[in-house]
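assembly run, all chains below
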Amino acid sequence: MSYPDDLRYSKEHEWVRVDGSQATIGITSFAADELGDIVFVELPEPGATLAQFATFGVVESVKAVSDLYSPVSGAVTEVNEALRDSPELLNSDPFGEGWIVRVELAETSELDALMDAEAYAAETG
Amino acid sequence: MTYSPHTDADRERMLEAIGVSSVEDLFADIPAAVRAGSWAIPAPLAEQEVRSELSRLAGRNRLPEVSFLGAGAYRHLVPSVVGEVIGRPEFSTSYTPYQPEVSQGTLQSIYEFQSLICELTGMEVASASHYDGATATAEAALMACRLTRRHRIAISAGVSPDYRRVLETYCSGPGVEVITVPVDLAEGGSGTTDPTAVTEALADDVACFVAAQPNFYGQLEPMPALAEAAHAAGALFVAVVEPTSLAILEAPGEYGADIVTAEGQPLGIPVSFGGPYVGLMAARMASVRQMPGRLVGATRDVQGRKGYVLTLQAREQHIRREKAASNICTNQALMALAATTYLTAVGPEGLREVAELGTTQARHLVGSLEAADVARRRFTGPYFAEVTMSVPDAAGCHAALAQRGIVAGHLPGTDEPALADTLLLATTELTTDEDIDRLVAALEETR
Amino acid sequence: MSVAEAPERRDASGRGAAFSGAAGGEELTIVEPLIFERSRATRRAVRFPTASARARERGAGQPELPASVLRSEAPRLPEVSELDMLRHFNRLAHLNHAIDLGFYPLGSCTMKYNPKVNEWAARLAGLAESHPLDPEALSQGSLELMWLLAELLKEISGFPAVSLQPAAGAHGELTGLLMARAFHRANGEGETRTKVLVPDSAHGTNPATATMVGYETVTIRSNERGGIDLGALRAALGPNVAALMITNPSTLGIFEDQIDQVVAAVRESGAIGYMDGANLNAILGRFRPGEAGFDVMHFNLHKTFSTPHGGGGPGAGPVGVSSRLEPFLPVPLPVLLEGDPEEVRRNAWAGRSTPGARFILDADRPQSIGKVRSFHGNFGMFVRAYTYIRSNGDAGLRRISDDAVLAANYLRMRLHDVYDLPYDRISKHEVVFSGRRQKRQHGVTTLDIAKAILDHGIHPPTIYFPLIVEEALMVEPTETESLETLDHFVGVMRDIAARAESDPESIRRAPTTTPVGRLDEAAAARRPDLRYTFAETGAPEAPPSVPTPAAPTA
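ok done. output:
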């Protein structure tokens, strides 16, 4: 399986897209497939502070529950409100419309602890 | 006697297929040091013998000829049709509807139950049932802690002492503090919770305030004011209600309850020495993910047909394990079905008749007792179908009447010393004029 | 597979018309309308008498209910005739599978036959109409029954004391852990012992209960033989551990063959040993946890002792405890106040009452954890369980376990060549297969297999549990299924395994004979529809389009 090249990936199957000081966070297609039909996402409040590799929310499928771990630290600037009514976006478009939160990136060097697409593909292969 | 179908030949065939010579071999994995010693279990009984034994025990109970006992369990008419439905083996000998394709009967009936409880309480969502009213109330209080992220609970002393004890036990687990808000129990007092006392008791870290309508002493609480006091303190308001009363009393959803709980026993379930009953719980949709217990939802099958499934299961213990909203698994589904069939059988008119007959007979009872000057009301203000009466030497009278097969209600003094010389008397649609005459006459005689 | 074993697929009800009328190939949108949709204003079933003139007169001076407490609109309960409602619920009944209709090998649930004499007993007016707060002098029969049942459960489990109060297994777990904590607090270790050890094969209720009691769950892995890993257990035990909760026989259907060492290690560490008694059905008369050194166990009366499961309850979850936990039992406790217990038992076993015996409910127990439920527990279940134990007696109880274990092992041997068996050991009450071979080789999942079983009039086993078995199929046949039924099930399972290979699509399409097909659980959870929505007030009450309902059988 291949994954978008412009993202960085965590072992917990979250991805992060960096655009200046803004970082967008989501879960990978691999994670979404493993969970199956996602029915609910518990989102943090805007303004909440996320710490790298700490939990920041929960994602539920019909028969499983999984914690969300933030790949980077930072303050939440925006949450994907569309997920409240359409959690299935995590299944249908995990790298696009299924993004979860945006944060103000606290520490760019944290990205070094994450994988590139090739390494992540190897990890999940 | 045993219900095993196996002949000796069957057993031989199975042993042979397994490849062992005796059933003992199948227990070889039990370490010798801990194999069972002897036990003193009596010999098997044939059906006629076991019936005789159970008849003996049933006969050792002496059912009262006249009873005004309620205090949390009420004798109502159980319509014949209710017994017919819950006696059907398709309902009684099935289990939790894990396979919805062959459980639509149970699932749809639970969906109907949830709908009926929402309608009665004026709430948006109801769970598929809890063990009883007391545990539902305790679970509601813990749910309020999760919703508010606070760790203290305030409860009116007008809630049943049994409920408060169960709440204390449940709260002792996670170390949640329980604060009791007093009720005015003085002779001639209101017999209700004072909203001012509530406001004082509600420090700003209280998760919820719990009050009962009608309260344990039969008095009607100022629920809108209590709800307001709770909300002003940032706490949720939990209303414990009596379900038949909701035919005529305001729905808790209308006066601002955030969670509603009830003992569903009055809805078609016999008193049966305390159980099985059914706990009701209803809440706002916004808090559904913190609601404990099973929920049934409507959906469609692959061909577009409407059907029902257990849903939002990720809240529950079998998926979320140590992070679950509660450990509840088995609930009281068959008793919920009894409540569903009861509410269907009586309908809105019948439920109103039940509530009105109960209150009419309560007023009749009080009027008669006061006219005969054998008892007087302890409190002022309106009451529903249960009433606290002051009677000199209440315990002595109660015991003397019990000897004659008359149960003069409950003795609140056992839990509340201030009410030592009172009787808590309940009436329902089954209370006859003659019952009231007999109680009055018996009390006159003991005077 | 021999041809003789190839079972016919038939409708899941075993009653033909009941289901085919509903499903029959036609595209019906509703199998049975909601009761609300049958409602017509002013239609009625049960009626009540009117109050007498005298009653109204005598109560006239009493305070009126103020308008402020009254509701403005009546609740919209259904308005139906008695026959219409009865048909509605009878039709719903036809949509259910049940023990009384067919095989129900739902693992971990002990779906055995629920004897009808139990129901007869529970409906005796002397018991069913007895009020929980009736004076003790009027309730001696109920109290004696509770006392006798507790005596029998003590004998069965080897514990010196029993409380009947918990309403279900999980409720018994809560009671047990609260007692464990009270014990540690009494010993000054309440603050230090904060962890509960739970094997990875445990029911979800175990860790959920630990959380409710304020404990932290530590998961102990299973070893390669499916038992608890003794090394891991010993390493985890210590001064901060409050209790071990262990299911024995385990959820793999396996007896913990080092249970003596497990108990010894727990005792030595100062922790409380909790045995989840969900699977007691396999070990009656063979293993008594109290005797073996456990401190507490819950019984599931709705599993081992045949009280009906009722579509998900009521159950009853009494707890047995060791003498060191006895002071902490919930109140009240039925006790024999006057009379010789030995004589009372002897008489009761002979069907006689004991003159002068007097039972009371003892609430004066200062170290008690309090109450876990209102009144005394699910009494109606006690009546059934007592009836069941007395019917079976000594020999019958032993036979229950012998035959239950025989049946589980028989199924293990008849099916282990077609379904993988990750832990191939002697079974107790159940056997756990894995559908991983079918999934990997043919793309047929365990869910597909379960759905295919439905088309044979059999309830599927428990699936995807325990969590440590991939694609788990947990089969508990119980002692009450005949060899013919077991053989039929073997045939069905072999047929499905064969079709998974030859025609996997037919398995993935299943079920096709049930009232509804596979339901969209994701849609149900994403946009929850949890109650009936009434049409807007004022809208004409148009009769809903009522499709041909499930035709009731003659």
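The first helix of chain B runs from residue 8 to 18.

Chain B has a mean pLDDT of 96.

not gonna interpret more than that til we talk
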